[in-house]
Amino acid sequence: MPETTILTHADPDGICAGAVALSRFPGSTVFFTRPTSFYSDLFHTESRSIVVTDIALTKQDAPRIVGLLKKRKQSGMETLYFDHHIIPPTISRASLRSSLSLYVHSREASASELIYRHYTKDLPRERVWIALYGAIADYADDTPFARERIRNWDRRALFFEVSTISLGIKNEEFATYDAKRRIVRTLARGGNPSDVPGFVRSAKKAVNREFELYELIKDRAQSLGKVAYVKDVPSFGFRGPSALFAATVRNSRLGICAHTRERYVDITMRTRDYSLRLNTLADRAAEAVGGSGGGHAAAAGAKIPKGAFRKFLDELNKQIK
Question: Hey, which of 85, 112, 263, 280 would disulfide with 56, CB 3.0 to 4.6 Å?
Fold first, then answer.
């Protein structure tokens, strides 16, 4: 049984936050999870210490997750939690905090920034690069911490590394959890994304695919009211750009990329209008059709039942002012 397990998200901010955690707790096991599978993954993790980074709590699972965390704490195990998502209304902040050994939360910063700031004194100064990579990749670099520290470094180099990790993981070669663990280990040792063999090449391939994807979406994007959408485009790893391109080519404030699964529809949402809070829109519209949604103000997603897509669009149009 590993002494410490790191449970983190598999997007760039989660990868970077996980790398900061591994730098602070070397030798830990790194495991990738997501909000919809977090309860199960937490339940099956037996380590004495668990570090959780960048994992949102769903409305449905939050109460039993709090219960499970309390049982872990009562049995002498510790859980350290670093997150920046909305706390669902099915639990209170106080109940969540009391169930944890450590809870660091702010909706105003990336998970990478939050965990780095907490362990700054225990890390080499240059590990701040990891925090900045995660913040920039998650569109969360407009914080006092990030703005001040970006000025200390060559921002062109920072953005090159951010582009490498954000784009590189979209290709199959680096989309697997094993590949992402290699990235985490490289960053935790003080390396950069571009130090991972083949990663820059993968990022360049992703850029080429995005330009090709834009041409495809110009032909396939549709709109309903104030929402533009594209369904079942072949590049699942490019859901975010697909949603944004749909909004762009249809001149809409909100864009959606929908992928049909066996039992549900996977929804990715992006906006060109930052006055919209997509996490709130996704949550309310998905709940109205029997699904769940959330995320961030400018980048959100949802999981809805098959056959509910048109009603989901109608609900979004009702909410957009």
Answer: 85
